[in-house]
Amino acid sequence: MGGWHRLWRDPRAVFGLAVLGLSVLAALLAPYLAGDPIVQRDIVATRFLPPLSSDLHGSFHLLGTDRFGRDVWARLVYGARVSLGVGVLAVSVSVVIGVLVGAVAGFWRGWPGVVLLGLTDFALALPRVVLLLLLASLWQPSAGLVIVVLGLTGWMTIARLVHGEVRALSVRPYVESAIGLGAPGLRVLLRHIIPNALTPVIVAAALGLGNAIMLEAGLSFLGLGVQPPTPSWGNLIASGRDTLVNAPWVAAAPGVALVLVVIGATLLGDAVRDRLDPALAGRG
Amino acid sequence: MLVRRTLSGLAVVVGVVTLMFFLLRLAPGDPARLLVGPAATPEQVEAQRRALGLDRPPAVQYAAWLGRFVQGDWGTSIATGRPVRGMLATAWPATIRLVGLSLLLSYALGIGLGALQATRGGRLDTALSVVSVALFAMPGYWLGLMLVMLFTYRLGVLPAFGAAGFDADYLTGWDVVADRLRHLALPLATLTLIGVGGTARYVRGAMLDVAGAPFVAIARAKGLSPARVALQHVLRNALIPVLTLLGLSLPALFSGAVFIEAIFAWPGVGRVLVEGVVARDYPVVMAATAVSAVLVVLGNLLAEALVSWADPRVRDGGGSATPGTGA
Asked: What ipTM was predicted for this assembly?
């Protein structure tokens, strides 16, 4: 389990951490990095400006402007707040549910285990996007709904991983001696087993983060997620769809940001996984 | 074995449909009120509710709906007034065509790329790894838009919408085929490209796993040529978990197809579903959900049959070689 410092020598981990770190930083510092993402002053004079141009008022537009003359860079940076925030919160919901279900199913292997594993297998077989579409259509679309829906449909892989870990750990001598010393089951699970079962969850969470960000964007793209004028990368891509011909940068910029962040999360997950499993070192 | 899997597949379909039905009943908004319009009197709403059977307890409604659904009475679309069954009867072959072809292509390309990476290694491996992770990270709807921008708007060579041109009825012979293929090109390319990355990543990993196994060392020691070892011993064994992945990735592929169909106005189940969802067209959503659940379950069964055909250990009822995926 040692050797976390060696993670820094893995170019995948460095790239992933750099991309994720910079995106989070940009999202946090949005008000200092960009102007207002929603209000525009002079639509006719400032709309459809290509990247790296200045408008008549002297404002510089790094990534150009959209059809309402709004600065694409500003919308991208503020969109990062929404997209990353929704992704992180959704994955947190998945991790909490997954760890709970997996741990309980792995530790109490009687009927709770059977029921929970059956539930996990059933949920794994559900077509996730169908469920997402349906849930998003039933309630008023909003960021909160997307978080809940993504969280509720993304916990199964984590539950499976934790289940396997907990099962393996619960027959270890140190756990058996804790039980032999009279420690109550819940305490053994919380203090001795779960902390040791969490490392693979980090990998699954990193991969799940990329997935969640992509799905949030997909829902928002279809108009079932975060609603405009609040910018999210998904609804930015959607708004650029209508202006593909005269302003392709409007749809291209948020897509590139999205791809970079998902690559970053995936590579970081790969690197951590290889670190945890020395037998796999050097692949990915 | 097959009977058991079929039964559990059926259980999944029934589970999905039941879940959807009660979720619809839980949701705010009254279909009867939607149907009669905002100006209706409470009595009219009540009459409509009775006509739709909404005044009965949910369990009774569910039994009635399931009974009609199983008998083939899928109701009519609230938005278009067309029979739902007719809408889906034309939709599912289009989805099978798109998803099936892209499955074949992305696995052929992905297995080829992954095998190349695992056997060659070095710079080529690194370069292809970058490509495959980029494709893996790309949302299909965005890649689709970028391809449309390039091939439809910039180069003007491929159509971006539908499965056939407006003049399709007047075409004959090879022109029909050419028209169909031109319309298939962009959605198929998009769906295939986003699938290739994940498959290549997975095949590469599986081959590197197998390459370390003792039987591979023996095959080499026997003096078999490297190409033969790679193909007959490593790739063949690496394909078993890959086939299992195929089954597990079907829901994800179908999910991808939902977005692609929406972008390219491809007349498949995904588009029916998205349009039904956006229009709050409940009979359409229920039927499209059921059909997509059936398609996914059938795909899973097919993949399991392939695995048991390829792996005698599974066929004889041993443990399965299920890989963990993040799909």
From this structure: 0.79
